[in-house]
Design a protein that fits this description.
Length: 133
Amino acid sequence: MYSVTKTISFCYGHRLLNYQGKCKHLHGHNGRVEIFLSAKKLDKRGMVVDFGDVKTIVKGFVDDNLDHKMILCEKDTIVPVLRARRELYYLMKENPTAENIAKHIFDFARGKKLPVIRVRLWETDTSFAEYSG
């Protein structure tokens, strides 16, 4: 089995619903996503996937949708306020935990036919969540 990993850094804010700790308030992170890709055999170029393709596809999605945005649950009561103020935000159906954001990026990459096997989201330098399908 061959595998490669692409790392993408981005900044985002969020808050967690139904949570009693500090993260129930709006706050931000300098996040890092690691996209793990795998294949049983290499393509005609001798690659699992071109790092440039992963950058174009996944980093493009992250930059356009998540970077420097408030990532919020669509049920969050702050959404109408942000909308009225023309602030930048990105809505998820789920609570925007590190686990759910990792799955969201995984699902996007899989939907683009990338051979992703796992996504790791570092929320801080010492804490990460992973999702593998």
